[in-house]
Design goal:
Elements lengths: L23 E6 L3 E13 L13 E13 L25 E5 L8 H5 L8 E8 L12 E8 L5 E8 L29 E11 L3 E5 L4 E3 L2 E4 L8 E9 L2 E10 L7 E4 L4 E2 L2 H7 L4 E3 L8 E9 L2 E12 L3 E4 L3 E3 L6 E10 L4 E8 L7 E2 L4 E3 L3 E2 L5 E9 L9 E8 L6 E8 L8 H21 L1
Parallel strand pairs: 2-5, 3-4, 4-8, 9-18, 20-28
Antiparallel strand pairs: 1-2, 2-3, 5-6, 6-7, 7-8, 8-11, 10-16, 12-13, 12-17, 13-14, 15-16, 17-18, 19-21, 21-26, 22-23, 22-27, 24-26, 25-26, 27-28
Length: 454
């Protein structure tokens, strides 16, 4: 079956797929490049109730090993940093070892796979059977599609693998080859299933965070065995969010002399046709992104018989504008005073507000958060949000000179935003002009009465 989004099930495997193979094992393979050996899972449908996949179907998983041969590496790589790859001494038809030649097409960001262990990153790897569109070739020829991705971001690869016949280079003898017991495909004398990488779709960034209202680029590209330019290509970008999906744009090329046919469904989205045809760069540009642009983007590329895809997550953020209702507090008549901290026009939803106060006699601030309250969220037309936090300040706990701080944390902020107010001492009471006049009249009256009675 054709590879679908439902088979992009990422599981990080640490146990060796074959005895003696670590999860990420590297070797030197002559002067052409380096070999990368990965622990994988062969994923098949019909695994029963104990193997539920991400798409809701039932899948079985069988340990497998993927050997990527002759990856081009940095020329300054020291031979001492790699360990020779040693195939099993006694080939076992139950082992699934897929050996893939990748000298053409080139695997992008191959160095990151080589250094995954040193960078304390896991490599996720899954392989499935694959039937190309309209394939009518030799019945003995088989295809696989593999998903290889670095944990926590970095490069993600979707590889189309095509088996090579026993007459190909790499076979010492074509007489009565050993068959892999599960796949029923011929193995080399070393016990590997010999394949070549026929097509690669990749992304260097599996997750992107962009500011609301700005422009962003979703990275996606492909490599093929045939040289560029591409004569016939099909590209589709789709967006999925909260159970719904829709097309963002589509591009087709038919003849090399003709301009690609482009259909744009989301205004402000574009792919450079020249880069797509000449270099395999099908990255999507989105202008002035808004909240509805957030979600899972699927980049699907078809070349000839092959079709593969990459998934990129787009997250949008906008930092809150933080302000206080007052800059200073003066307690009048010894009464408490209510203060508000406003967080305006932020995205996404989650925001955290803390209150702290620092009396003049203290060196460390004291929390006031337990005495605060929050309003409900208010949403604007652009789906940004606002919220306010209130706290009542008491003069008994806050002498003059105390500093009260509202501390706001949000996903869009590298560090929390702090806004502060100061508690001031009340001014001495001044007698009013009217009071002075009345007191003067009272004194004059007393003096007048004194002299009359005397």
């Amino acid at each position: 079956m054709v590879f679908s989004v439902g088979l992009l099930i990422i599981s990080y495997l640490t146990a060796p797929a074959v005895s003696g193979f670590p999860s990420s094992h590297l070797a030197q393979a002559g002067f052409a490049g380096q070999d990368v050996v990965l622990s994988c899972s062969l994923v098949e449908e019909g695994g029963g109730f104990g193997a539920m996949g991400a798409s809701g179907g039932h899948f079985s998983r069988t340990p497998a090993t993927l050997v990527l041969r002759d990856l081009p590496m940095s020329p300054d790589l020291s031979p001492e940093t790699v360990t020779p790859y040693i195939p099993p001494e006694n080939p076992d038809p139950d082992d699934i070892i897929i050996e893939a030649k990748v000298t053409s097409p080139e695997i992008p960001e191959a160095d990151s796979l080589l250094h995954a262990d040193c960078n304390e990153q896991e490599v996720a790897c899954e392989i499935s059977r694959y039937i190309p569109r309209g394939f009518q070739g030799n019945a003995d020829e088989a295809f696989f599609i593999g998903s290889v991705a670095l944990e926590g971001g970095g490069v993600s690869l979707t590889l189309v693998l095509r088996t090579l016949p026993p007459t190909s280079e790499g076979w010492e003898s074509a007489a009565s080859p050993l068959l892999q017991s599960k796949l029923e495909l011929p193995l080399t004398p070393s016990g590997t299933l010999l394949t070549e990488v026929a097509f690669v779709v990749f992304s260097r960034s599996q997750s992107i965070t962009a500011p609301l209202g700005g422009d962003t680029l979703l990275d996606c590209g492909f490599k093929q065995q045939e040289p560029f330019p591409v004569h016939a290509m099909w590209l589709e970008w789709r967006l999925q969010h909260r159970g719904s999906g829709w097309r963002v744009m589509e591009m087709k090329t038919v003849e090399p002399e003709e301009q690609p046919i482009v259909h744009v469904d989301r205004n402000g989205s574009s792919v450079d046709p020249a880069l797509a045809v000449q270099e395999g760069n099908v990255s999507l540009t989105l202008r002035k992104v808004t909240v509805p642009d957030e979600g899972t983007y699927i980049c699907t590329v078809g070349i000839g018989l092959y079709q593969a895809q990459q998934v990129i997550q787009l997250h949008l953020t906008q930092p809150p504008n933080v302000s206080l209702s007052v800059d200073t507090v003066i307690f009048k008549d010894g009464l408490p005073q209510k203060v508000s901290c406003h967080c305006d026009r932020y995205y996404p939803l989650d925001v955290e507000v803390e209150w702290l106060y620092l009396p003049p006699s203290k060196e460390e601030p004291i929390s006031l958060t337990q005495n605060s309250s929050l309003t409900s969220h208010r949403q604007f037309y652009d789906r940004t949000l606002s919220l306010s936090s209130h706290v009542t300040l008491h003069p008994s706990a806050l002498p003059a000179g105390s500093v009260v701080t509202c501390l706001v944390s949000h996903r869009s902020l590298a560090t929390p935003v702090a806004v502060s107010l100061t508690v001031l001492a009340p001014e001495p009471e001044k007698r009013s002009y009217r009071m002075e006049v009345l007191m003067g009249l009272a004194i004059a009256t007393l003096l007048f009465l004194y002299f009359i009675l005397k």
